[in-house]
Amino acid sequence: MNDLLPKKANEDFLRNNSRGLFLFVEAVSACMVFAVHLCIPMPAFSITLDEAIKRALEVSYTVKEQKEIVKRTEFSYISTIDPYLPRADIKSSYVWSLNGQSSRSQLSSGIPIVGGVADTSASRNLFTYTGSITLRLFDGGERYSKRKGAYSLLEKEQERLKGVRVDVLYFVKTTFYIALGNKAIVETRKDAYRTAEKVYALTKGRYDEGVAKRSEVLQTEVRMTTTKIEYYEAIKEYEKALEEFKSLLLYNPLDAQDVEGPLSEPRYSGDFRNLTERAIKVRPDVAAQMKEVERLNMAYKERRSLWFPRIDAQLQQTRSDQTFFPDGRQDAFLINFSYPLFDGVGRYYNMEGAARDIAAARYRLEEIKRNVGLEIVRAFKEYELSLQNARLYKELVRESTSNFEQAFGEYKEGKGDILALLQSEKDLSKAKENYIGSVYKANTSLTSLERVAYLDGE
Length: 458
Hints:
By secondary structure, the protein is an alpha+beta fold. The chain has a domain at about 65-85 and about 140-310 and about 345-455: Outer membrane efflux proteins (OEP). The protein has ten helices and eight strands. The strands form three sheets. The protein has a four-stranded antiparallel sheet with strand order 2-5-7-8, with no helix packed on it.
């Protein structure tokens, strides 16, 4: 008999304080609903995936940076045409001899000769003007190597630009699907909250009729409050995902935007072996490294050209006299031949170092190709797994829906258990949320596969 006293006391406490407890819970619920509605973003306009991609490629700082680098290398390549063109030079000098004319040849200095005797009264001043046009005839392949090397560097930077564009597309698509998935989760948790309200209303009605226990009402009320909290958390997660997406597009954080588009299971079928073979041929990082090998080959040939002579043709005119505008003129055509017989050991070791650079670049190319295959296999398996999970969770949603409807119907008729009903409602809500998560993960996995396989590159 004494064991029944605590139980009876608890029932009396609940009966006497139930009204106050109801008012407290309803007040807390009203405050939370108001806070949730304040946190719900009010979008001014929606952004589709195609619009986001177009804007991202226009405003991305990394794309703009790489475009400037491409322009710079293009200008460098254009400048390599200079050694093939004639070079025109003009030179002027003024000489004031400190020890008279005795140190210079009388014939070359233009000192007047009077009766076979030099006129030593001539001025010590000498003005010289020289103009020349020079054309290099042979340099051992130096000009060709520099020009081809500059062109290979230009192509390398162009391939890097393609890679940067692919990276931008990947980040935009990934953040878009994450934001879209979080938006769908918000709707799912909102539906869960409405379902919890429906269960609570049913339980409260049954309690008012005297066929349900007070503990059942409190359990459904706790579940309703829990779904409300989860709904609020989902809104915040969506806001964070949306801000990250807007940041990539350089939107003002204070502006109200939203994402819009279908969130469905992706449809793609392929073989990772074929994808690997294709990616090795078209991926920008592979192509860029191949261009780097070509550039280093040209650098090796440029250093090898130092072992060859230089031959220049030159047309020159020289004027030299004691007046500011000299009259003495001498025209000449010259063929210049130069070859360094000995200038240290630098020529040999620079050439050997260039050969080692080529070998290292080739090893790097093979390593990149190996990583390409590994990245594609991983991305392909991840995509298959995410797609399989999406299909399984879809089936789980169907089963959970049937289970909840049956439990709700039985409890409504007074045959079921409240715990079974609440558990079935939780399972249904979780299954819907997991399905949405698996769908947007499948889309992001496909986006990752498109990135490593360069499917969106063309």
